Amino acid sequence: MKQTTGNILVVAALILAGIVILGYLSSTDAELSRYNNGWNGTATFYDQLERTGSTPVASSATLRSAPPNTHIMVEPHHLPEEEKDTLRQFVRNGGGTLILIAKNESANSIPEAVGSSIRIHESILSSIDREYADPRMVIAYRAQDHRVLKGVESIALNQPATLTGGGEVLLQTSIISWIDRNNNGRADGMETFGKESVMAREVLESGEIIILSDSGVLINSMDSTVSERDNTQFRTNLAAGMDTSYDTIFSQPFETDGALQAVTGAKSTNIIKILVLVLITGIICVAYARRIL
Description:
Blueprint: H1 2-25, H2 43-51, E1 55-57, H3 60-65, E2 70-74, H4 81-93, E3 97-101, H5 109-114, E4 119-121, E5 125-127, E6 139-142, E7 154-156, E8 162-164, E9 168-173, E10 177-179, E11 197-204, E12 207-212, H6 221-224, H7 231-239, E13 244-247, H8 260-267, H9 270-292
Parallel strand pairs: 1-13, 2-3, 2-13, 3-12
Antiparallel strand pairs: 4-8, 5-10, 6-7, 6-9, 9-11, 11-12
Helix pairs in contact: 1-9, 2-7
C-alpha cells in the first residue's frame, strides 16, 4: 500500500514538473509577444490564427514559392532588400493582399517597398469619442466595405497612429477627434477637431495593401474588454481569411534580442516541447521499472 502511494506521489510530482516546464517554455512578458499570455501580449490572436489554419512564414522563400492570398505583418523591423522585393512581387505581380498592422513610422518601409503612397504618422491621436476615460482609446468607424470589415461597424483602438496619403479609407475616427500635439488630453491652441484615417487600402496592379495604424488592437486585453465594439469580429475576419499566412521573421511579436533568442526560439519550437514530454515520460517509466525490478 505504501509503495503504491509512493508511486502515485512520484507520478504526480513529475506531471506537475512537466506542467511547470511547459508553462515556462510557452510564456514571456514582452509587449506584443506572441508568447505573452498577459494583457499586453498577442498570444490570443496568434492562437486564433493557428486554429484557423493560417500558415506561419519563417522564410522569404516560402512566400515566393507558395504565396498565400493574404499575408499579415505586425510591427515589422529591419527588412533587407531581398525581403522588400519579395513583398513587392507578392502584391503587384502575385495579386496578394498584404495586411500591415503597425503604429511605428519605421514600418513605412513596407508601403514604400511595394509602391504604396499610404504612410504611418506617429501622432498622438485622441478623441472625445473614446472607450473608457482614456482619450487615446479612440473609437474608429467603418468608412468603406471590405472583407476584413465584414460585420464590423466600429472598433476600439489602443493609442493608434494616423495614416495619410492615397488609397481609400476603411476605418476612421469620428469628427470629434484631434491630434494632441502638446499631449495634455485636451483639444486646445492650434489643435482642431476632425476625422482621421486609421485604416486604409490601396490597390497596386493585381494586388492590394491594407494598413492599420494600431498594433495595440491585437493585444489580448483588447479582445475581451471592449465587448460593446466589434474588435472580436474584426480579429476573426483577419484570422478566417482563405489561405492566410503571417510573418514570423521580421514582425515584433516574434522578435528576440541577445541571450533571449535561444530561449524564445525554444518556446516557439514544438520539437522542444515534444522532447520535454518524452523526457518526462521516460523518467516515469524508469521510476516504475526500478520499483518493479
